[in-house]
Amino acid sequence: MKLILRQLELPLDYTELDLPAAAIRRLKCNDNEIKQIHVVKRSLDARPRRPAPVFVVAVELEMTSSFRLPEWLKKDVEILDNEPAAEPFKPVINKDAPRPVVVGAGPAGLMAAYHLAVMGMRPILIERGEQAEQRKTAVDLFWRNGTFDRENNALFGEGGAGLFSDGKLTARSKDRPRIRLFFETLVQCGAPRDILIDSEPHLGSDVLIKVVANMRKIIEANGGEIFFNTPLTDIYIENNHITGIKCGSKEFKTSRLILATGHSAHDIYKLLQTKNVELESKPFAVGIRLEAPQSQINASQYGKFADHPRLKAASFRVTRRPEKGVRSCYSFCMCPGGLVISCASEDGALTTNGMSYSKRDGIWGNAGFVVPVEPEDFSELAAASTEPQLAGIHFQQQIEKAAFKAGGGDFFVPALRLNDFLAGKISTELPEKRSCPRSRPASFEEILPKFVIDTLRQSIPGMLHELEGIDSSSCIVYAAETRSSSAVRILRDESGQSTTLKGLFPAGEGAGYAGGIVSSAVDGLKAAELLFGVTT
Ligand SMILES: Cc1cc2nc3c(=O)[nH]c(=O)nc-3n(C[C@H](O)[C@H](O)[C@H](O)COP(=O)(O)OP(=O)(O)OC[C@H]3O[C@@H](n4cnc5c(N)ncnc54)[C@H](O)[C@@H]3O)c2cc1C
Q: Model confidence over 10-36: pLDDT tens digits?
């Protein structure tokens, strides 16, 4: 008999050798009834009500035929006997269809192209930036001295927006087969197998670069073709159906295009607007990035066990409901042991984000603290615009341009000591060892709308209080966090195509139906499946 036993609690310093004894205690069985055991899921429970943090694991067991499952355990056990082995999910596609084109080599486009290639469809993948390794050189230069490259930056280039990230692989999506396939794809491309087990898996930017390079090699080895330094600049249409694309001096004929250009490709939204592709504004959130000493974050989450060698850099998630005339506020995209980074995809505009390496061993941790923005907040911009559906982007751009200016116009990030921000003061100096050295004090009032500033000032003290142990006087805040999610949605129908342009399959975060690495990759995979489920 094979079974999964859930909710098995193990001490922090457990080893594989401890698994059988723990299972025997729960199953009330004899030790010779366990033929095999291994961990299939693992999470950490460090809630303060526990005397010490524990790992809560699910194990897969193979038992001898003499074993009888106790009645009282049934809720925590799943019998695997007679169940078909988990099949990797296989997209259903028609191999006689013409060569598909995918634009954008972020998580969505890479995942789509990878599986089209593995299925023998020989996709063409178009990317405006460089390969990940060369892109890294350009991004390092930007962080070192502010040299900006329009096509190779923290948002554009192979690997997409997620390349210089924490590489958190958490997702709210319930699409388990596709999430599993994405994780297995990452493992095939060099990601550690732990991501298949951990409840909060992450890769880190150093690992992501290697994984992306391997995805590229597998796409090419399976007949896919990748064009770097090749921005999509025009779409050819006949009778409401896509017939091809122009990328600078190159042209590609296609009747099926997966558009996975992310939410920073403002030129693409403008292009779609001129082609009468149906777009709509959607809500997003803006705010700041808050950096706190990782040792304090660890202490707040793990208490006296903070220095335990099995405990990794801790993360947190805090939310605040609307109160006393201010909006709700929530922490977002936590990067334990990470860095605050400046990001830009156009000259004269600046936004912040966070990234980390696989070890997450930096002395700071950071998270966005953001406030929801609704289309009504930029209705005046929409009314005054010839492209009202893009008003959310204009709203973000106003903030990003103000941040660039306030930082001194050389891509220094505006930053303040948290207590100064809360008191409405401009810091005279910043801690020398901050994670983002190209930052300088500036007034956040010149950058963010008043409702955002008011909400942050009122909410953050309570949120930090909830985290117990984080001292606001040791925190730094950076402005501004603007690209939490897409401000625009490219409307799709049930076939996954644009509602107004047949053959166009908008996918990933830029389509407005996904956010984050996992959900964008899953959306790209779905687009690859849908691409050949449709006939003209
Ligand atoms: C610094 C940072 C840290 C993040 N950290 C995390 C995290 O830890 N976990 C998480 O889940 N999410 C994180 N995110 C969000 C995540 O990266 C995105 O949700 C995800 O990358 C979206 O994937 P995508 O493929 O839809 O778009 P993108 O990743 O934006 O990729 C779009 C691609 O299209 C290309 N492109 C754009 N325009 C054109 C054009 N005209 N022609 C050709 N190519 C074009 C771009 O160069 C890019 O490669 C982070 C984002 C940033 C910026």
A: 999 999 999 999 999 999 999 899 999
Pocket of ligand 1 from Cβ distances under 6 Å: 103-109, 126-129, 154-157, 160-162, 164-168, 231-232, 260-262, 264-265, 268, 333, 341, 343, 353, 355, 508-510, 515-518, 520
pLDDT digits (tens, 9 = 90+) for 409-455: 999 999 999 999 999 999 999 999 999 999 999 999 999 999 999 99
Name the region of 276 (left: φ>0; alpha: ψ -120 to 50; beta: rest).
left
Structure tokens at 533: 């489920």
Question: Which protein residue's CA is at the shortest distance from atom 17 of ligand 1?
Answer: 162
Out of 3.30.70.2740, 1.10.10.10, 3.30.70.2700, 3.30.1360.120, which CATH number does the structure's domain 2-79 have? 3.30.70.2700
pLDDT: which is higher, 536 or 150: 150
Atom of ligand 1 nearest to the CA of 109: 25
pLDDT digits (tens, 9 = 90+) for 51-81: 899 999 999 999 999 999 888 888 889 988 6
